[in-house]
Amino acid sequence: MSSKGKEVAEGSSRASGGGDDHTQQQQQLQQQQQLPLSRYESQKRRDWNTFGQYLRNQRPPVALSQCSSSHVLEFLRYLDQFGKTKVHLQGCLFFGQSEPPGPCTCPLRQAWGSLDALIGRLRAAYEENGGLPETNPFASGAIRVYLREVRDSQAKARGIPYKKKKKKRNIIKPNGDTSSNLPLQ
Questions:
Q1: Class of the 37-158 domain?
Q2: In degrees rounded to 5, what are phi and psi of residue 68?
Q3: Rounded CA gap, 125 and 32, in Å?
Q4: Is 86 helix (H, G, I), strand (E, B) or coil?
Q5: Domain boundaries, the chain
Q6: Sequence-ordered list of residues with C-beta below 8 angstroms from that of 2, at least 6 positions apart, any chain
Q7: Exposure of 154 by Cβ count < 10 A (0-12 exposed, 13-18 middle, 19+ buried)?
Q8: Least confident window among 18-22, 122-126, 137-141
Q9: What single string gives the DSSP state of each residue in 121-141?
Q10: What is the mean pLDDT of residues 56-64?
């Protein structure tokens, strides 16, 4: 049997004359599996799997294609039970104090920075797993508003106002020089 006949008998995609897309995808997958993932990629994969498990555990289960920003918000609120950041409530004696002198019964929550990073990873993972950028539930305005509210409330509860870092700008002088002290080459 010729090699072409063998390929037809084995059902190879090469025999059809079409491309080797499937074979190339398998080779890329094998190469990716051989390389150790970066810390970011490992965390992104773990977060994506956790979110998928969360959707499957809903009653009734939610398909990823049916996932909306409201599901993402529920997921973020669910994660609060595993948080380690003390967020003082409005009526707490220590509300607004950056370093309270004693313990209190205020709840532990996820820190804003952790949630912000999580959303960034899930946003990227959604698109890497075939989701369209325009339907990405992690990129919705509702998520941005929620994160801003969490950031502001946590800053207020700790007595540390959140201030956005200002970007440094190079000022162009009338003679064309910039204000930076970089030597010209």
A1: mainly alpha
A2: -125, 175
A3: 16
A4: strand
A5: 37-158
A6: none
A7: buried
A8: 18-22
A9: HHHHHHHHTT--GGG-GGGSH
A10: 93
